[in-house]
Structure formats: C-alpha cells, structure tokens
Amino acid sequence: MKSKQTGITLIGFLVVLAVVVFFAYMAMKLVPSYTEYMGVVKAMNQMSSEGVDGKSLDEIRRELLFKLGFQYVDDATIHPSDITIGQGASGNELHVSYDKDVPFMYNIDFLIHFDKSVPIQGNVVAPN
C-alpha cells in the first residue's frame, strides 16, 4: 500500500499568505474609519435623546461637533455643512452625511460614504 502525501506546497502557502496579508492590510486601513463612524452615531444618538427644543441649526451643529470631539472623531472628517436637519417620517431628523477618503497604496484610495439620520425631539428655531 502506497501512502500519498497531502497538504499544501510552499508556493501554495505563499499565495494563500499573500491573499491573507492583502485583506488584513485592507482591514487595517478601513477599520478606523468605521470605528470613527460609530462615534458619530453615538454622538447623534446623544443629541437625539437630549432634544433640540429652541436651538438654532448653528447651535445644534456646534453642540454636535463638540460631542464628536469626545468620541475621537477627527475635526477634518465632518464639516458643519455636513450636518442638516430635515423632515423625516416621524418629524424632524438630524442628518449627517460625509465622505471619507482613505489612502490605500500608491495611487489607490478608498472613498467611503457615510450617511445617518436620527429623529430629534423639539422644534428648531428658524435662522434669522
């Protein structure tokens, strides 16, 4: 009875290792953007639970940007113009929409679009 060897060759192992390293490097580049987004969601939920009665849009933007600082969201990530308030299905909604450009390698970048809306309680004061 002949025994046959089974397993992976060195070249096969190197190919599998290269694929795993590529996806691990991609994850290392993308995971911080998603953890930053989780901080944005947490700050928006705090604003939603507090309410915005009697505040202007500028005050809401300022307060949200202040809360984002506690969530370790980079100042260059979200600009005040990315924060809006509009009508949703259940009333007023706080809406944040922004793009994040993540350099990957050489001239290859990832462009990630984040978009989140949460209902807010209270009335927003109209701008002057």
From TrEMBL:
It comes from Dyella caseinilytica. InterPro entries: DUF4845. The chain crosses the membrane at residues 7-28. The keyword Membrane applies. This is DUF4845 domain-containing protein. Keywords: Membrane, Transmembrane, Transmembrane helix.
